[in-house]
Specification:
Length: 849
């Protein structure tokens, strides 16, 4: 909302400059987003002039050479008239005009200089409305004689004495709970309260609606029927006759232009002016164009159409409200008037409608129609029925003064009244002790009463505090004692409250175990050369199909990653579910880099993933009883080369073993024992992927809770070629693990184990095995057979070829044996080796050599 500062000062004028006003409003909750300047940057050089003569330019048919009296000493320095070349068609001798002299700075920043136009030197510029930004008129110059200006317009008078040609404008961010501040007078009340009791204190002028020239009672010649009072708590209307449609005076145009409104004519401008001043929208009907002189307020019929003022035909549904006359709908209630009954240049009778509409209904209708207006933006925040007569009083006064109108006796006033809004004026007890407990400091009861009175609350002292009567315009915002405490705190000055830390006995400022694990994991990946990304928690439902999750691919039925949480009110269809995996954002980031000539990608993301419970009351919906299953995940994606090619090494592509090695380095950081086992993920390569299974160790949280059973941490593998291709990637590997489970597996304290004093005994073993047998199963068999004597086992060579036969491969195993009490001998190792060989033979293995 834009509030011209001179307009605001008309109702509250503290001794503060524009920045002082901005600081007080912002610090008390009415945030000033920006300060704009409307009109000319400086009033210097803008004066009143009188055209003495206007002759046609000798070399240009459309130009006139004018002799203009600018007062003493303004022409060539000796008091003679100035010569100004003007192209306006309406310039004529005898006119009093607005003139910019050389050196004046125009609103767009242009500095005016003497100019030679077709051989004639022009010593200034005769101005139009648009050039001064006080209106939209640009076809001719601004003739001051034709305007209602209460000022002496002698030549040479500063133009700022006659017209508002320069003003600061505050751009305010009004929160949804404060629709009372959507009018200039509401902001003035806030400014009065913000400065009351300080050195910058300023009184609040009387409300502009106190002088009401209208009257109560029935209105002759017009009728209104209200069929849906639940959607229209109050509907008021007044009739004006002998209306003269004309341009608005410059002061009104200037204020509307500065506030962001386009001046149109005096009647329409009055409705906008009254709305900006009171916060309550109005609409003017040409009563002679209202068929039957009767309006009916009702719910729309499904499929009904209305042509609105923007010349668009809109189709309505049964939840919307229309205002109709005898010929059908003429307006969409609370959104926009209809073209059929709008005010025209020949209008002489006006019906001024001011109503209160149901805020949620207006918000829904606005979204459904894609139609948002100044009126709907106010109604949807919840205006109060009392504001109707505020706006009617302002409009009535201006219609009489600016349009020469005669107000017809009476006011149509329909709605809930006594059974609804009039009785809803709550009284709330504000306890002194409670306020002190919440704020941490006392505020004198007198100061509390002063603050609340400045905000239009009525107070009465009690034994323990104040009984506070809430004003009508705040009834939806202030409903509890804590709301009153907020009002006192923000006006008295939140910045004055002492800065203290909450009492925390026995607490130390340190990270939790899970937080330390999370940070250590992220640091470990950064140390390995990966870069972190941050993706959105919202994602597209099409992600599931792109990850080949469209079918039931898990043994239990539907894949767990398809149990997504659907948002009830998404920002868009492409952000309508919560992500069930980190792969989507990782793949998006990888494609972004590859498409910009960054083919080598090594990235990770640490963030929350969401899944709906399998047996909730409604699939894909999180409820209070069945909340979403959330956990913090860690995902890694590798694509392209692992390291740049050098003279010492060849290009090494990202593959399953690269991702597995990175995962192994990460889990070793937390001393977690793990293994790769068979698993089914549709988005992974079926022959190059595995489930990551971890065994709880002594001292870990999972060991205490679930025993020694293996825990599935996540997956590791290469992406299915169809999935990688969907993101325009080549061979790509990834892994993802549950950081919550990793934190539970990692012991809070890592115990130190000393190396044995005796050297290890090393042996190599070559064995041929079926090619389909995973190497991890071979290593597990070796560890199980060797027992505690085996210190370490690894695969150091793999061979396939004619010597081992088709469908088989040879694995070369490096075995390291160690004892803590002695040096092992061949005799000690031979029985263990025999057990290892027997275990390998059970897997179909044969020793080589």
């Amino acid at each position: 909302m834009r509030v011209p500062l001179p307009w605001l000062r008309e109702y509250c004028d503290p001794p503060l400059d524009v920045h002082g006003v901005e600081e007080r409003l912002t610090m008390t909750g009415t945030k000033v987003e920006a300060i704009h300047h409307h009109g000319v940057p400086s009033i210097d050089g803008f004066v009143v002039g009188r055209v003495l003569s206007a002759e046609r330019h000798p070399d240009a048919d459309r130009l006139k050479v004018c002799s203009v009296d600018l007062g003493d000493g303004e022409g060539d320095g000796d008091g003679s008239p100035a010569t100004i070349v003007c192209g306006a068609p309406n310039v004529a001798a005898g006119q009093t005009v607005a003139v910019a002299r050389p050196g004046a700075v125009m609103p767009d920043g242009t500095k005016l200089r003497q100019a030679k136009l077709r051989g004639v030197v022009s010593e200034g510029m005769i101005l139009s409305e648009s050039e001064l930004q006080i209106g939209a008129g640009s076809e001719g110059i601004l003739v001051l004689d034709e305007l209602m200006i209460d000022a002496e317009l002698a030549p040479g008078t500063p133009l700022a004495d006659a017209l508002a040609i320069s003003m600061d404008v505050l751009e305010l961010e009004i929160t949804t709970n404060r629709p009372d501040c959507l009018g200039v007078y509401g902001v003035a009340r806030e400014l009065h309260a913000a400065t009351d009791g300080t050195a910058a204190s300023a009184p609040l002028a009387d409300a502009p609606w106190e002088d009401d020239r209208g009257s109560d009672g029935p209105v002759a010649g017009a009728e209104v029927i209200l069929e849906c009072p639940e959607l229209c708590p109050r509907f008021t209307a007044r009739v004006f006759e002998d209306v003269t449609i004309a341009p608005s005076p410059p002061w009104l145009k200037a204020r509307l232009s500065a506030a962001g409104q386009r001046p149109i004519n005096n009647v329409v401008d009055i409705t906008n002016y009254a709305m900006l001043l009171s916060g309550q929208p109005l609409h003017a009907f040409d009563l002679d164009r209202v068929a039957g002189a009767r309006l009916v307020v009702r719910r729309a019929h499904a499929g009904e159409q209305v042509q609105t003022l923007d010349s668009q035909t809109r189709t309505l549904d049964s939840e919307m409200v229309v205002i109709e006359d005898a010929d059908g709908p003429t307006s969409i209630a609370g959104l926009m008037g209809g073209a059929r009954s709008e005010v025209q240049p020949d209008t002489t009778r006006v019906l001024m409608e001011v109503a209160t509409w149901n805020g949620p209904n207006i918000h829904r209708s606005s979204l459904a129609l894609g139609l948002r207006s100044e009126a709907s933006g106010r109604f949807e925040k919840g205006l109060q029925p009392e504001q109707c007569m505020h706006a009617q009083a302002i409009a009535t006064l201006l219609m009489i003064e600016l349009c020469g109108a005669r107000v017809v006796p009476g006011t149509i006033d329909l709605g809930l009244k006594g059974e609804g809004w009039i009785a809803q004026r709550p009284t709330i007890r504000l306890r002194e002790a409670r306020l002190r407990a919440i704020l941490g400091v006392p505020v004198a009861r007198e100061r509390q009463a002063q603050i609340l009175a400045a905000l239009d609350f009525a107070t009465q002292s009690t034994d323990d505090g104040l009984d506070v009567n809430v004003p009508a315009l705040r009834r939806d915002d202030v409903t509890r004692e804590i709301d009153l405490i907020e009002e006192v705190a923000r006006i008295d000055g939140v910045e004055r409250l002492p800065a203290t830390l909450p009492a925390r006995r026995g607490a130390a400022g340190r990270l939790t175990h899970a937080q330390r694990v999370r940070r250590a994991a992220e640091d470990a990946l950064v140390g390995r050369g990966l870069r972190e990304i941050v993706g959105w928690s919202f994602t597209d439902p099409e992600l599931l199909d792109r990850l080949l999750l469209g079918g039931a691919s898990s043994p239990e039925g539907e894949h767990p990653l398809r149990r997504v949480v659907t948002l009830e009110n998404p920002l868009s269809e492409s952000q309508s579910i919560l992500r069930p995996t980190l792969l989507g954002s990782l793949l998006d980031a990888a494609r972004h880099n590859v498409s910009r000539n960054g083919p080598d990608v090594a990235i990770f993301e640490s963030g929350t993933v969401y899944r709906a419970h399998a047996h909730g009351p409604s699939q894909g919906r999180a409820t209070h009883e069945f909340p979403a299953d959330e956990h913090h995940g860690l995902g890694v994606l590798l694509s392209g080369a692992l390291a740049p090619r050098s003279w010492r090494s060849q290009r090494v592509e990202a593959d399953f073993f690269a991702a597995k090695a990175l995962l192994e380095a990460l889990l070793e950081r937390f001393h977690v024992e793990w293994s790769a086992q068979d698993g089914a993920w549709p988005f992974l390569h079926p022959g190059r992927s595995a489930a990551v299974m971890a065994t709880p160790s002594a001292g870990s949280a999972l060991a205490d809770a679930d025993g020694d059973g293996p825990v599935r941490l996540g997956f590791v593998g290469e992406l299915h070629p169809l999935v990688a291709g969907a993101w325009d990637l080549q061979r790509t590997a990834a892994f993802a693990i549950d950081l919550g489970k990793l934190a539970a597996l990692a012991a809070p304290v890592v115990e130190f184990t000393a190396f044995g004093p005796f050297p290890p005994l090393r042996r190599d073993l070559a064995v041929t095995l079926p090619e389909s047998l995973a190497g991890e199963r071979v290593l597990e068999a070796v560890r199980g057979a060797a027992g505690e004597t085996l210190d370490e086992v690894s695969v150091f060579d793999v061979y396939t070829g004619e010597q081992v036969g088709e469908g088989r491969r040879s694995l070369a195993l490096a075995l390291s044996f160690r004892a803590l009490d002695r040096t092992l001998t061949d005799e000690d190792i031979e029985p263990v080796r025999a057990k290892i060989v027997a275990a390998l033979e059970q897997l179909g293995g044969e020793l080589r050599g």
